[in-house]
Design brief:
Blueprint (H helix, E strand, L loop, with lengths): L1 H37 L1 E8 L6 H11 L3 E10 L4 H15 L4 E10 L1 H6 L4 E4 L4 E3 L11 H6 L24 H25 L14 E3 H7 L4 E2 L2 H11 L8 E4 L3
Parallel strand pairs: 1-2, 1-8, 2-3, 3-4, 3-5, 4-7
Antiparallel strand pairs: 5-6
Helix pairs in contact: 2-3
Length: 256
């Protein structure tokens, strides 16, 4: 009888041991599943003209989201306005201080879009990506001569001399032209300064002050990009920089 009780007790112990193993396996699987779906790499797609603060807002969203461990920025843009490009670059730079940021360039990544791209840990470009195109442009369209030919006169009353700057009914004065050229030059110097801060490995960048664009493969010797590659390689690089193993994270697009 005692032997039978021992056998029953042993069977009961074995049964509970099996149950415990099943529970532990379920917990492990659940935690692994939970980790995978709460550990994320965010993707920001910068496309078209950068003329608002949408991408900057997405960068700040990624910065605040503790589940996002790294960000891939897909850039396919010819550039944008000074205000939007500077704001976006600053937001990406702040994000990059906390989380890995990897850029992958598409057909275009020029001017302000290249500036934005520099606020990252690593840049991939396609061989035929059109990049660089560094520069600042200001345009003042005047219909003054046309108005004069048509006998149209204008009168103006302003609270200050600068109030009707860029007005299409007149041409800029020599003083305004000089001031605007100085502004453009200062903004260009700021573009170069930010690029050098973000990418100290850049060399001979003054050769590109003329605003010319170069191909992706030509950008490597300048240090403007790191490697020829595509989106998947950028994703792998972001995971590597964030110490994420393959299959341990999900990829999510960021929108705002």
């Amino acid at each position: 009888m005692a032997r039978k009780r021992k056998r029953v007790a042993g069977q009961r112990y074995l049964k509970w041991a099996i149950v415990a193993l099943i529970v532990l396996a379920a917990i492990f699987y659940a935690s692994d599943w939970y980790s995978k779906y709460t550990t994320r790499i965010g993707v920001i797609r910068v496309s078209g003209i950068i003329d608002n603060f949408t991408y900057a807002d997405q960068a700040y969203d990624a910065l605040r989201d503790s589940d996002i461990k790294a960000v891939v920025v897909v850039v396919d843009s010819p550039g944008g306005t000074i205000q939007a490009s500077f704001e976006t670059e600053a937001a990406f730079r702040e994000l990059n201080m906390t989380k890995p940021v990897v850029v992958t360039m598409g057909e275009y990544a020029a001017s302000g879009a290249y500036l934005v791209s520099t606020a990252s840990d690593y840049i991939f470009a396609r061989s035929a990506t059109e990049t660089a195109g560094l520069g600042v442009i200001a345009i003042w369209v005047s219909y003054e001569n046309k108005l004069r030919e048509e006998g149209i006169e204008y009168y103006r009353w302003t609270s200050g001399e600068m109030k009707d700057l860029w007005a299409p009914y007149r041409s800029p004065t020599p003083e305004e032209s000089a001031g605007l050229q100085s502004l453009v030059d200062n903004l260009m110097n700021e573009v170069i300064r930010r690029i050098k801060i973000n990418r100290p490995q850049v060399v001979n960048i003054d050769e590109l002050r003329d605003g010319s664009t170069i191909w992706g493969y030509e950008a490597i010797p300048y240090g403007l990009v790191d490697e020829i590659g595509d989106y998947e390689e950028a994703l792998s690089k972001a995971a590597e920089l964030a110490d994420l193993k393959k299959g341990s994270y999900t990829v999510v697009g960021l929108t705002s």
